[in-house]
Amino acid sequence: METNLNNRLVHFLSQRTAQDNLRSLKINQGLIDFSSNDYLGFSRSAWIYQHINEDIKQYQHLSKGATGSRLLNGQTQQTDDLENQIAAFHNGETAILFNSGFDANMGLISTLAQKGDLIIYDELIHASMHAGIKLSKASSLSFKHNDLDDLKTKIPTDFGGQIFVLVESIYSMEGDFSPLKELCLFCEEKNIYLILDEAHALGILGKKGRGMANVEGVEDKIFARVYTFGKALGAHGAAVVGSRILKDYLINFCKPFIYSTALDLHSILSIKWGYKFLLNNENQLIKLNKLNNYLNERIITNPAPFKMVGQGPIFGIYCATNQKAKNISRHLISKGIDIRAILYPTVPLGLERLRFIIHSFNTKEEIDFLLDELNIQSKLYN
Question: So what's the pLDDT on residue 1?
Answer without folding.
Answer: 60
